[in-house]
Amino acid sequence: MNLILKKDQLNHLLNSWRQDYEVYAPQALQNYTHFLPLQDGFELAFDKAHNTRIPPKALFLPTSEALLKFTKFGGYEQVPLETAPRIIFGIRPCDAHAMTMLDTVFEQERYTDPHWKARRDATLLVGLGCHEPCQTGFCTTVGSGPFNHAGLDAILTDLGEIFLVETLTEKGEQLFTQLETATEEQSKQASEVQQAAAASMPIAFETEGLKEKLDQNFDSPYWEEISRSCLGCGVCTFLCPTCFCFDIVDEAQRGERVRNWDTCMFRTYSLEASGHNPRPSRVERTRQRLSHKYTHWVDQINQIGCTGCGRCVRYCPVGLDIRAMLRKASQLPSEVAHV
Amino acid sequence: MSNEAHSPYLPIPMHVLHAYYESNDRSLKTLELSFDDPQDAREFFAAYNPGQFCLLSVIGKGESALGIASAAWEGDFVRFTIQKMGSVTTALHELKPGDPIGIRGPLGNGFPLEDWKGKNLVIIGGGCAFSTLYALTKHLHHPSNRGDYGKMTVIYGTRTSGLCMYKQDIAAWHQRDDMEVHQAIDVPEQDWLHHVGYVPDVVKEVKPSPVNSVAVVCGPPIMTKYTLPALVELGFTPETIFTSLEKRMKCGVGKCGRCNLGPKYICKDGPVFSLAELNDLPADL
Fold this sequence. Notes:
The structure holds 2 protein chains of 2 kinds.
Chain A: E1 2-6, H1 10-18, E2 22-29, E3 32-37, E4 64-70, E5 76-78, E6 86-91, H2 93-106, H3 114-121, E7 123-128, E8 154-158, E9 162-167, H4 170-175, E10 180-181, H5 184-199, H6 210-216, H7 222-227, H8 235-238, E11 246-251, E12 256-261, H9 267-270, H10 282-301, H11 311-315, H12 322-329
Parallel strand pairs in A: 2-6, 6-7, 7-8
Antiparallel strand pairs in A: 1-9, 1-10, 2-3, 4-5, 4-12, 8-9, 11-12
Chain B: E1 12-21, E2 28-35, H1 38-47, E3 53-58, E4 62-67, E5 77-83, H2 87-93, E6 100-107, H3 113-116, E7 120-126, H4 131-141, H5 143-146, E8 152-158, H6 167-175, E9 179-185, E10 195-196, H7 199-206, E11 213-218, H8 221-233, E12 241-244, E13 260-261, E14 264-265, H9 266-269, E15 272-274, H10 275-279
């Protein structure tokens, strides 16, 4: 259903949600915007068409979280699950879309991750579409978009003085029961804004046949060429909304078994006890990062495992640009498929 | 087990039943672990298939992935043979009977025993990777399983005779008339009555027949690398050659990303793959 939220009513609405939920929204902290819980007198920082530096996946898979607590005499117990109701307000469609991809990892039937699932089940995602898409984003190239609905309970379109609210789930509808219905004219205006936003984004690279090219060029010098200036800092993976790798370590002094974000861009990630490392240099590690997103995810869920949020482009300290890497990949030779 | 609240990261509480060295250089130690709760034992053995592995947990030190080296019929314990490598495996070596320990598992797919019924089995192992093949052989030896399979040939190589694991059992296997056992060491030793040479060469020498047979290979990467083509040369098709892969692992349940190999996770989709499956995966090992 399409509803109208006047911008001067927004804070009132968010405060009303705070009675029943912990509400997270983008707020300025130091030089970046972050999803932080709203406190009295909050100031939102979502006016720019610019994503938070740390993707909201961190609210579901924290950078560091305890899985087990150690008890006396060598015992241990599971850390209680986080089930307090939450709303994430102002999540961008690329990040919400990424959540649905991570669900396929953490909510598999056979081994559901209870920590992830408890937070997912307790959290509503209210999205803010990107009427002025960011410069580094390429969502429309990879099957997402500035007003993509995937993963969202509701999505807002900025129409100047007002937001048009589209509720997408029953739970999302419950959040906006106080609002007036949008007029046909307003709905039409929103859909024009949405289409114009998508149309303003150039196609960053050719995705047709890209998977096959990457698969077939596993041993190509291409990987060395694109990874040459990589520092191996891992920021492209830590800030990626679809990256989920983690390490598990025992923090004996704290008495906890902890999982921490990890990255395939680090040497020790795949280093084995024997000294053997299947990905000994940045060449293999870069190949793994790109192949995971652009071929392995495609094999697994028939979607590119990238929503085009553009963080890896924006934050790479040496200016490596995944769009340029993939444009180059689309020039690679492709074999005739063996039938 | 499958309910939402059950965490796949929560180890099953166990105790060390027996702990003994497996090799004369004390680099390999076997632990036999018993369940604190009989219900956990029932669930474990109902799920267990030879070829699977567990994550052994020393609280405060961490976890280590190890293949299961016992068959379910042996009793209400689970056996692991551990090579001392880093901090967790050192801590495992220091455990004594009665000490607490946790395990997560059984994890992974294990060997496709149903598909192998009626076939001759060629079991090829090298070094401490032989542990799951030992479990497989023990499983097949049980009278209720033995009749389901044809001829059994075991080829097992170690660097030295002192590194050979499960010596008593293997000595007894030589006496059985329902199987053929070929042992090998890398360099000659006094009083050694068996093969001398690397496993791929011993395979070529023994020449197991590919007719109505499957071959399963577990060993260090270099052994596997040369044994698989040796089997192909003998006439085994990629669909009848199986191997168990290893990569660094943390979660064991397809989440942490570490053992990713193309679209597969070795922990969840493996560790057992046919050569036909491997041929479709990137050489990212």
